[in-house]
Amino acid sequence: MAVRHYTLDFNLSTAVDPASTVSGLLSIFHEQELTETIHDTDGHGYLATFVGKNGRFVVLRVHSQGLVTVDLQCYEDDDIAQLDNLLNALENKLKVLLNGNITRIKKLPALLRGAKVDRYWPTADGRLIEYDIDKVVYEEDSEYQNIKILHSQQYGNILVLDGDVNLAESDSAYTQAITGSGKENYAGKEVLILGGGDGGILAELVKQKPKMITMVEIDQKVIDGCKKYMRKTCGDILDNLKGDCYQILIEDCVPLLKKYVQEGRTFDYVINDLTAIPISTSPEEDSTWEFLRLILDLSIQVLHPSGKYFTQGNSANLTEALNLFEERLGRLSCPVDFRKEVVCVPSYLEQWVFYTAWKK
Predict the structure, then answer these.
(1) Closest CA to 314 of 284, 333, 289
(2) Residue 17 catalytic?
(3) Of 171, 219, 268, 273, which residue is the catalytic one?
(4) Cβ distance 341 to 354 under 8 Å?
(5) What pLDDT score was predicted for residue 281?
(6) DSSP state of 295
(7) Most buried residue, 21, 112, 158, 280, by most Cβ within 10 Å?
(8) pLDDT exceeds 80 at position 323
(9) Residue 284 pLDDT > 80
(10) pTM summary value
(11) How far is CA 205 from the centre of its chain?
(12) Mean pLDDT of the 303-319 span
């Protein structure tokens, strides 16, 4: 079962008399066999709810601050033509009743709540995005996270981990940015990828004939889903855990990084595709910041003196979190310089920041 939620808003230049406004609308509600209940608002305008036999539910508010709002809820299989007629009738009647007092009218497409296929995902800076998702092609719960791959008509298949949009088949801009935007020469180089279970980075870099790429991904189920349903991103690179110039290790990268530090092993490139910078700006309350600091420190320690470290940041709008990350770059055990690049990643629908760091 799913519910459609329609909204209709009227912004007014001045407040209106609720009694005269509402009385002009009652005939429309009664024609639709909607029964009203008037609620006490303790002086905050007028509030009435209308309930229909077919499960329709309408909330009408005439606010004392110069705003009239209508919310209509109905079942997904309700007659859309009838609902459009109801909303259009209310809009047209309110235009007459509020003539000369309207500064803006806003009617949004219906929000579909409780649907089997979830189409709504928040951006990093908290805005709601409705994607054109029409089916779930893969879903598994691993011991680490919930994994979904959803099909979008625009973006192809989209990998979503714990409710966070990670990468779509359309997002080659992400892969380009986190590997140096085409300015690096990986031929004959040693490369370490942290995360990257969608296979996009690995598939791109093997084309450049590196000496060896070591990719460390903790979650086998991410790889299982992506090698079947994200082929436009990874090609066939995830079909085998070893190739002529790469190896995929299914394990936690932290113990491995510590082992590499002890052995004195270094890489020409370290690419951190584990997680974005946390949204929280309170490191003492968010353990992700501590994890991020640990990965940063270990990654720089295994970086060749002339090597480069690449990672994603977060939304360009999250300036406080990005500034906090840059402060942390300045407090590593090994001093580094860095630069950043802002890139439009199609399925994110927001500008995304990427970082390059190197030892001083």
Answers:
(1) 289
(2) no
(3) 273
(4) yes
(5) 54
(6) H
(7) 158
(8) yes
(9) no
(10) 0.89
(11) 26
(12) 96
